[in-house]
Amino acid sequence: MAATLPVAFIALHPLPERTDFTPNITISGELRHDLATLDDIADGSIRRLGETSERATLARRTEVGTAKAPGLTQLVNIRHLMDGVERDLIQCQVYLSMHDAEDSRRRAVVQVAVTAAASQVASRIGES
User: What is the domain count for the chain?
Assistant: First the structure.
């Protein structure tokens, strides 16, 4: 069972050029008392995105972290209908799990998601 917390932080990127989608970062979290794996939690995220979009598909998933502090990253391709126009988006999600030091059945799971139009991501690859 999970107690979902509202989004704790949202950042919007003010792009100088005219675009139809504002890239954003969201950070949220939940306290969990269940045995769901990070894969299960991430699958649920893709399922929920698919329920509110035309399509959401997993492009890549990678386990990160350690046994004591596991994490997971995934890229999700999203086709979303906005103002009657279908847009292709990419969302990079990071999940971090931290167990309670006194009760290993309790844990906090933090999700960070970066969302941008596919064209915005493609135009920025290599910029750093």
Answer: 1
Question: What is the Cα 33 distance to its own chain's centre?
Answer: 21
Based on its alpha-carbon atoms, the radius of gyration of the chain, rounded to whole angstroms, reads: 16
Residues sharing a CB contact under 8 Å with residue 13, sequence separation 6 or more, in sequence order: 22, 23, 24, 116
Q: What pTM did the predictor assign?
A: 0.81
- Residue in the block written with tokens 């502090």: 69
Q: Give me the domain span that covers residue 6.
A: 2-124
- Residue 114 belongs to domain with CATH number: 3.40.1000.10
pLDDT digits (tens, 9 = 90+) for 65-104: 998 889 999 999 999 988 888 999 999 999 999 988 898 7
